[in-house]
Amino acid sequence: MAECVFCRIVAREIPAQVVYEDEEILGFRDINPQAPVHVLLIPKEHVASLDEAEERHAPLLGRLLLAARSVAAQLGLDDGYRVVNNCGARAGQSVFHIHFHLLGGRDFAWPPG
Ligand code: 5GP
Ligand code: ZN
Question: What are the phi and psi torsion angles at 79 (to 5°)?
């Protein structure tokens, strides 16, 4: 999608600090980090949100989580990390290209805000 900021990052039209890439997934640093480590894992395919994902995306969704685990290990998050998906405006989703936040390097509260 030409107007989607994350599709533009995938197309390298907008620069990003890429920390992970494979055939179908890109991982890059969040521009407004909420923790010492804050990486976004996205599919290269445009899927607007978890609500828009289809049954055929099930393996991709699993691989996004495994990619988050790989990046956590790569960046030394040995004592824990959080993986978050905000689905929909009320949950705080602001970019409508599905992504998982990988957050680490500090303590996290529960329940989240
Ligand atoms: P959401 O609020 O949709 O769950 O998360 C969107 C995230 O994307 C936010 O944490 C925001 O800081 C990040 N973001 C928005 N635009 C850009 C951008 O152009 N580059 C990068 N690296 N992150 C972005
Ligand atoms: Zn997109």
Answer: -110, 20
